[in-house]
Amino acid sequence: MVRRIYFGITLSIFVVAVVSGCGEGTGSHSRSSIPAGNSLAEPAQPLQTSSTLPLRGKIQHIVVVIQENRSFDNLFYGFPGADTVTHGMLSSGSSVPLQPISFLAPYDIGHEEANFIASYDNGKMDGFDTENVGGIGGSGPIMGATTPPPYPQYGYVPAAERQPYVQMGSTYVVADRFFPSQIDSSFSAHQYLIAAQTGNAVDNPAPPIWGCDAAPGVVVPTLNPDRTQGPGIFPCFDYPTIGDKLDGAHLSWHFYAPPINEFSIWSAYDAIRHVRYGVDWQQNVLSPETRILTDVASGNLASVTWVVPDGANSDHASSQSTAGPQWLALSSMRSERARFGRRAQSWSFGTTGAAGMTTSLPLNWTCMDLVYEHLFL
Fold this sequence. Notes:
Largest sheet: 8 strands, mixed
Shape: globular
């Protein structure tokens, strides 16, 4: 499993565990070898732990902000104190420098299960150069007939384009040992974020709708225990979700996403039958995603909230947009300031805590889009 990017704002003690991630947890951690002189890691300063801090408040709100398809090395290249690298390993055994590749690049890299298996290469993390490069999903023609540079899988986002993320991470906490539980594409990643499972589904259904609203005959592959693919199934499930747990505990929740008729591939609860055809769909699955700004301003922030962007604000490769970092930073800060006033100025991340603060804001990216990543679990 490779790292998922994660950092979080915690106004009080950090008590939320985001339940997305790659494969089944083994309970042990290991890492790939890094060539001498290749690591950008710097010694991290010790953090004050929750046990040393006064507990004068508790989490009342959790807001999970979901972006798309970036690895830690791709977005936090050279981040002080974090484990990143300057070079990536090739399948030939040699290495290549990571190169700046803009959010505006019109091509994508394959990021399905087969791509993961190839790039992971039994933990050697040296098969990224074998991945397909093309249009969305890494297949089909590239927009504008652009020719990618050599080794486009080995890149990082230029500093100017990711500056809001770096600023937020520098002010608060970045987790560089955060591993997802799925090994494939966005459909599975989003299911893990609402349910910690996929019903054995792997990779993506056919667009434009991923879920119970998909056209008849649409299927998503299944994953066997040996990581071979099984028969396809309709992408509409009935397993329990975090929303169900919250309903049972009489806690409020909202899932903000683009409307079904616009960008419904990332509306995860559309794949949960009892939500899609129950009262939760009308009460808790809300569109458009920008509605969170007005809801928070009016004091309607739920106990647990998910926020999914549209394509232009998602950071997804081939979206040809640099808007993602500003969307995340500005919408997060505006939401918190609108609801909690000056306390937004005092956000703390991780386990450092902030007495009397009440909102946890985990920010994470789904599948890694198979851009280079040197760590594995």
